Amino acid sequence: VATPLFHVTANNCVAHAATVSGGKLVHMYRWDAGEALRLIEAEKITHLSGVPVMSREIIAHPDFATTDTSTMVSIGGGGAQLQPDLVGKLDTTMENARPSTGYGMTETCGIITSVGADYFVDKPASAGRAMPVFETKCIDANGDEVKPGEAGELCVRGAPVIKGYLNREEATAEAIQDGWLRTGDIVKIDEDGFIFIVDRAKDMVLRGGENVFCSEVESAIFEHDAVAECVVFGVPDDRLGEEVGAVIVPATGKTVSAEELRAFCKEKLAAYKIPRYIWTQAENLPRNASGKFLKKELRTTMDVKLAS
Predict the structure, then answer these.
(1) Which CATH class is domain 208-306?
(2) Rounded CA separation 225/217 (Å)
């Protein structure tokens, strides 16, 4: 268990399921990829669920090649989207483990969707189908349902959805409308019912009237072999409203310049989505207790004058 039990993923999705099935939980005091590898071999771990960067650090760690991970059958997790490149790397690098992920919220008591193994490898940008206990729909800014394949805010309805927030009537009325929980996540739903997370509605960069989804830019940057960590966010701009900024941490023993990264992104992204501001740093990016990158903190502390 690589994430805190006071979060819904570790508690509801991992601890409850393992307890009911008679499984064993192996806890970590704080995340360390080397220690995780030691525990996998010593405790014969079968499943590892954490945020995406944890899986990425596992297969990139110097001890990975000499550690017995053959007992693993599943690796991945949630808390953020597993980038498509990571899905492929996990599937080809791990001896027996298959990539898996789930998407959900505290307000839904855990997962809304889940996907793994061949289904995930076949659609690596997907978060899977909704669980049978949920109804889903996508709506536009006016509250109207969008056509299949079009981006819209995901709304879900079902027994696991909370009745409301304690003593917060206004927040409840805003989040739950006619029984539908507005997730605040922009998604697309394909013809097979697979849900693709585009980005958080509040985590979108509005650049000169064009919507830039940070997760799309992050996924493109993560495809570069020299990038170990990456966070993308909006930077205030007098002319365009916002510009795209990215903070990266190079992989151990590798370097990449801002010019090289922009050239790499040019092959994968529209010109307006390519980061104008790029910061490169050696130290790991700040994270919260669950291992998620602290994007808000980076947005407020990074100095534009120091960007490339």
Answers:
(1) alpha beta
(2) 15
> Per-residue DSSP letters for 206-225?
EETTEEEEHHHHHHHHHTST
The amino acid at residue 276 is: R
Domain ranges of the chain: 8-96, 129-200, 208-306
Neighbours of 300 (CB within 10 A): 9
178 in Cβ contact with 135 (< 8 Å): no
State how far Cα 23 lies from the chain centre.
26
Q: What is the DSSP string of 23-46?
A: ------SS--HHHHHHHHHHHT--
- Distances, alpha carbon 140 to alpha carbons 40, 143, 182, in Å: 44, 5, 11
Q: Give the tens place of pLDDT for each residue, 209-220.
A: 788 989 899 999
Angle between helices 84-93 and 214-222 (to 10 degrees): 40
Confidence of residue 37 (pLDDT cuts 50, 70, 90): very high
> Is CATH 3.90.79.10 the right assignment for the domain spanning 129-200?
no
Question: Which DSSP symbol is given to 14?
Answer: I
For the stretch 99-128, pLDDT in tens is 999 999 999 999 999 999 999 999 999 999
